[in-house]
Amino acid sequence: MIYTRWRLLGALCLLLLPTVLLAQTTLTPAQYQQDFDYFWTTVNENYCYFEKKQTDWAKVRTYYGAQLPGITTKAQFTRLLENALNELYDNHASLSTNLPDSRRLLPSGTDVWAQYQQGKPVVVAVRVGYGAERSGLRPGMELVAVNDVPLTQAVPPLLGHCLKIVDEAAREVALNQALAGTHDMLRKLTVRSQGRLLQLYPDKPTAQLENIRYAGLLESRQIGTVGYIKINNSLGDNRLMTAFDSTLDALAATTGLVLDLRETPGGGNSTVARAIMGRFITLEQGYQRHEFAAEEREFGIKRSTIELVSPRAKPYTRPLVVLVGRWTGSMAEGITVGFDAMRRATILGTEMARLNGAIESFRLPNAGFGFNIPTERLYRIGGLPRENFVPAEQVDLTALPGTDAELNKALELLKAAAKP
């Protein structure tokens, strides 16, 4: 669930291209200082995941505050705040503006995800239908360089300057920032596969990540007796509710359903989420727990709530499998843990985007643009942090390349469930 302090679509922080910084009247040094103080204080008082970060936020104020006297343009100030926010190494924290050479946002602005395995950067997931996949990149390949810069050199500059120690989470974020590149960068990836070095060009002939287009809010079809619905990153669009209802109605006679959330990195809103979940239950149930960190930090009194889902008309009661992956983010992660908590679906796939909490948006008083940070911790009803959820049914993406192993396994499960 996403809250805002100013009128902003909940999914804004994860849109592929935030509003590009517009030329405006130059601010005074005092105004830059005021905006920076507001930014630092707001994060200090409201960001709810400091306890699992190695960030020295007090040092952030000193380190970046010392750079303010050299700031004379909004572009420079934007870069300073980008770097300061990057100290949190949190993919759910972002500015609402960017520069042409800003880093693409994770996960919505990338098509490859990698982790360090035994000290080596290895591809663990590739976004289906995007340039990385078309160029030949596959899970299991070892990454060597980006644009001919070895990753051993490309990653360290993306790590924060104000970390107490560099933990694995910070290294993973920096690695994937290097792989995502900048908005104005055409990437060349050097990988090692089966002992050979390969040169791959995921942004040729066009930089697709800057021009994502979907055929519709969702896609659907019937596969034998099983229904299939894929959400196309539209969980923040209220029109999806009507489209989903009519699509599910058309598949009402199927023996089971696959709900594909593998292309939902851009967040959404809980109204749409509850509308979807409500079509699969017959009793009101809780789907996720919220904790409000700022109130606890200020008063020492813990506050938490459980959000409920109410059943809606014409419930679909047959077996349901939900497909998830690295591009299942934010509100889609909430839907996933909700279905799991309500024991209404089998969750199948890989780790999700692991985006922290619910975000809130704030606007700088002078510069006019905003920033978004997680201000509520989110949990599965049973107490597991939402970002730590892992599907019960996992799939090895390195097996049977060129096939949709997750969908095939889902169909097998539903076929077995339909047997008398």
TrEMBL record:
Residues 193-396 form the Tail specific protease domain. Keywords: Signal. The keyword Signal applies. Residues 1-23 form the signal peptide. The keyword ATP-binding does not apply. GO terms for molecular function: serine-type peptidase activity. InterPro entries: ClpP/crotonase-like_dom_sf, PDZ_sf, Tail-specific_protease, Tricorn_C1. It comes from the Bacteria. SUPFAM superfamilies: ClpP/crotonase (SSF52096), PDZ domain-like (SSF50156). GO terms for biological process: proteolysis. This is Peptidase. It comes from Hymenobacter fodinae.
